[in-house]
Amino acid sequence: MLKALIGKELKELTLIIEDGIVSKRLLNTDEAICRNIECIDLREKGIALPGFIDLHAHLRGLELSYKEDEESGTKAAARGGFTGIVDMPNTKPKIDNTKSLNLKIKSLYEKAYVNFGISVTIGKDVDDFIEMLKAKEVVSVGELFPEEHERLPEILKSFVANGIEKPIIIHLEHKDALGECGKGKRWACRPIESEMLALKEIGYMLESARIKAKLHITHVTNKYVYEMAKKYKFTTDTCPHYLYLSSEDEEKFGCLAKVNPPLRTRDIAKELIGLLPHFDAISTDHAPHSIEEKSLPFEKCPSGIASIEIAVPLMINLVNKGILNLEDLIQLLSMGPHKILNMKPGWGCFDIGCKANYTVVDLDKEWKIDSSKFYTKARFSPYDGLIIKGDVSSTIINGTVVYLDGEIIERPKISYLK
């Protein structure tokens, strides 16, 4: 039993779910059903929304399991309200060949607590790359880093030759316009112009090749890149840290707030917040590292913020501030990612035949972020101590209540994003 947002109305529903699919729906609550089948009443836990999907997460795993693995990362995702995630390929070994891909697929099926898709990148063997793209678990290419941008025409030609329509996720910085500065100043050495130069070059590549492609520009840091990407008709996402944090936080927190592209000034962040409802998606760019790595001197510590279990609460907090509404939240975290990934209809809806993936949000809960309670292995955060209003109270994956009131309840029967 749920209190669900249907259109703009809140309705109490009783859903019968079989094999992860809604088999019956009653537009009321019928407690008599519970005499014959197992049921759970979530009406008082908050509002059920179509299950959220993270387009861009780094689960690490394999040889980088000391940073994060498929179990810890997806438990963190479930706690954060995500019913599906896309795992990026820059792990060790890199997911640029079928052997590594098969290792990653096996590990996810064995350990994951949420539905998943895998993003791959191109290696030395183009034929092997095409073979990877045929795997049902592979939903995208990328994130393509600056040094890989020059291979984009090759990737596009292989897409056309093989009828592939999966999105390509682009990390937007230019390899010839990257430097390093001290903490609080990285925005000057990895400037907005670096992102814009890369975007112009990619646009020129597409125009020269006369190829239409589904390019997605991830973790946009500023309004100028957003506006330019829209002119090219590329889809876009941004991340909570580009909205909540700034170069001032990088100076204050050092390595804990070091990320690529870098945090920009407070004024740039404010401009980005104003555009938020117009983005296609929000992603986390969840990038966990060990505390030993993040404790290195600033010039040596790796970039990345682990935020997969607080990204949704941070967005709900913006709903409470009047910056977003619930329809925006659904678009940015569920329907937008669903469309970008070319998924089939039926994800997270409440009708018969829908895939029962739901995120239940409590709009009224006020709480303080405490990274020591995280499920991720990266239990440290520049958000520690921040008081926000709004949280995830439950995450339902393929009909199974996986997360409820601060606890992981059970591992569901998972599937690839489809």
TrEMBL record:
Does the record's keyword annotation contain Nucleotide-binding?
no
Query: Which Gene Ontology cellular component annotation is one that this UniProt entry carries?
Result: cytoplasm
Instruction: Tell me where the transmembrane regions lie.
Output: none
The organism's superkingdom is given as: Archaea
GO MF annotations for this entry?
allantoinase activity; metal ion binding
Please provide the Gene Ontology terms (biological process) for this protein.
purine nucleobase catabolic process
Output the InterPro entries linked to this UniProt entry.
Amidohydro-rel, DHOase/Allantoinase_Hydrolase, Dihydroorotase_CS, Metal-dep_hydrolase_composite, Metal_Hydrolase
| Keyword annotations | Hydrolase, Metal-binding
Q: Does the keyword Metal-binding apply?
A: yes
Coiled-coil regions listed: none
Segments forming domain Amidohydrolase-related: 47-402
Q: Which cofactor does it need?
A: Zn(2+)
Name the PANTHER family on file: ALLANTOINASE (PTHR43668)
- Official protein name in the record: Dihydroorotase
